[in-house]
Amino acid sequence: MITGKLIDNIWATRKAESLKGYKLMLAEIIGGRDAGKQMVVIDTISAGIGDRVIITTGSSARKMLESDNIPVDAVVVGIIDEDCDVVK
User: Most CB atoms closer than 10 Å: which of 8, 28, 61, 87?
Assistant: First the structure.
């Protein structure tokens, strides 16, 4: 899983038929070695611009949409309410 921040909506006037009805958003990765990189995600939980989110990728993302036939590689699965410190 990846943490990210939603930074914009993406509008596609033409897209694969299987993507119709899904909300596309642009996310910026926060934390880790890929921090600052951007990726297109499907938002299934009604997150909004500015929200910090948890993103799942690959086959796990497609399972969130309940189909392996949808051309998706990243899906928002949670909204981060607050950071917490891990006690060691």
Answer: 61
